[in-house]
Description:
4-stranded antiparallel β-sheet, alpha+beta, 297 residues
Amino acid sequence: MPKVITPDELPKWVPGKLLTSSASLGWKDVAQRSYLYKGQEVPIPPLDHFMIVRYRNGHTPMYRQLEDSKGTRTTCVPGDISLLTNAQNSHWHWTQDIEVAHVYLSNALMSRVACDVLDRSVEDVRLHDVLQLQDPVLNAITDAINTEVRTNGLGGALYVEALGMQMAVHLLRRYASVTFRDPADVGGLTPCQKRRLGDYIESHLHSSIRLEDLAQEVGLGVWTFSRKFKESFASSPHAFVTEQRVQKARTLLAEGRLAIKEVAYMCGFSDQAHLTRVMRLRLGTTPGQLRGNCRER
């Protein structure tokens, strides 16, 4: 049995008819699939995502055993929800045909949300062993995600990202246990995190760099990341990235091989005028003046 599988690989272990899937919709940290299953008994390797199972049609006796647990028996009906934490072996057995919708949340999303809402560095998040529950909030969120898969409306990826964060907060409040990192970890960014950020910023200067992307690069929530970044660099992430853009532009202008508008593009400025405004504000000079001074030397 493999150590861990992705939601894409789940059908290899749990065969069923795929009804809907978010695979082609460009969602991040949240995924959806719905299946029609025959009665079966299946071992499932650990998933790399948290899985929320929404029972939509069919009634069936259900048995599930997690690693190092006794196992649970119940009868699942439409409206019920099962939770399965990530990185957990499980064994399932049901006897009747059922239609279910799966929502998968990434570990990165759960960890970021936990860091933000608990204001502490998180080592691990685990969902409780819950095979059957009735929860109107989870039902509403899963139904909204399921509907979005079928309709793929305007701003769908952003909409689902918000739904995923709402679901993560609710799970953390009601159905999860969190292990925190050592208190000594509280403070600025680690040397490794600083190096990763430096490499990421350098390789993405030509494109948009979002606060969320920087936080995810070092595995932190946005609020925690911003606080640690300021403590480490005595600057906000936005101001720091802008300074890196200006310094990169300064170097390229001094080399004199590219037109000013090309330098602006390569350093992530919207156009030459934007580069000029920022450089005048920060350096008290313009790109043209800077290039002329370099040529005179």
